[in-house]
Predict the 3D structure of the following.
Amino acid sequence: MVAKLRRDDMSEEANPICDSVAFGIVGQVLQSVRMEPHLADSHALEQYHRIVGILDTSKRRNPDKENPDKKALYVTCLKALASEISKIDINYHHSLLKNIFTVSIWYLPNDTIPEFLELITRLAAVADDYLTECLHLLVNNFVPPLVDRTKMVKWAVSRKTYIFSQLCMCLIRISNIIPLAPKVLRGIIDKCMPNLFDSKDKTISFVECMLGLDTGRMGDLIRAVLLDKIVHLLTELDVNITWEGILQEQHNKGIFDMELQDLDGNEEEDGLGHGGVKVLLGANAHAEKLDDLMVVIFEHFKSLDAQCLHKEFTILKTIFRASVLTVDTPKFVQFIMFYICARDPEICALEFALFLTDIFKNKEEDPISRMSAVSYIGSYLSRARFISDDTVVAIIGKLVDWLVDYCDHESTRESTPIPNHQLFYATCQIHQFTFRGLVHGHDRERRQ
């Protein structure tokens, strides 16, 4: 490639020179201004400011209309800086670094992005100087340009897959080079994670790219944080969807009716439809965002092999126990657990049923957790068609044994003024729900 850096201090009239000479020029310029500005040679300062100007991408708005000469010059500068990384000084090159760390790679042409990310990778490897800034830059680019801070610009849609893959590969390379990087990255993701009120496009894009990091060694290091942040966001959205927002025709149905009839949906093998939230709710913004997020997560689960899926499941059980089980009447977020169990009926489905049963039976658990656990057991057994009959019978048997023990204990102890048998009655009711769900499922299968 011919780079249009110039021999006579990069003036417009000079003949272009080759990359290797251009690299030398950039290195000399960087070295010449590594001092207080009033001490630096004015000629060197002029050259430095031209390099800073070449790296300024703040006015770019359409990567497909990039001037070829300007693109070649920009790429040459990137390569030169990458080759002269040791001469970049955080104390004297503020404007240069600012123009690097504020780049939106969405405005860069596709064939320029790898060169820019190579520079970022090399900067991140400089001992303790630029790692945080490099990781911040990459995480900030999880979100494409938004119109009015809400809708993704149209031209970004077709580039999303490519840019996400480049960002994830760069982050994985940095984590392989710098052992500290995953720890720093966890903190940055925690701070940058979208909140309840961010736009749907911003939230979906961020989570979609973030899940691309859930692979290999990087996944092992940050998976728990990624999943915890996602479940926390889902739970926030869930609890902000009120039953008053449910469509009128659904108003008189209970939660188990909804789970069985509406959320069973059209999913081919697991009975957990992706449009479940939208079935129940109208134009509720939180519901739409929640539904689309769950689709992204379900697609992620589908992409995992059996070993990785079980790792995710193990982490999600802990998160479910801490963040979902005791939440007041969540409506949909629990279906990420049901869905991952549907992907592995033989292992995950059984483990989750036993997990809930153990919480319910554990006398040391708080009453709210035990009540929630038995409610989830009823929902889970009654509507999850992927659970084997043997598993259902085994779990119901455990609940029946608990009921018998409870009756035996109550019959021998002294009476209390106001006995609290709430857990007992809830467990009895679960048997009815489960039986109803099984009958409903068999009727549906016969109709099909």
Notes: The two ends are 64 Å apart (CA to CA). Strands lie at 2-6, 16-18, 146-147, 151-152. The mean pLDDT is 84.
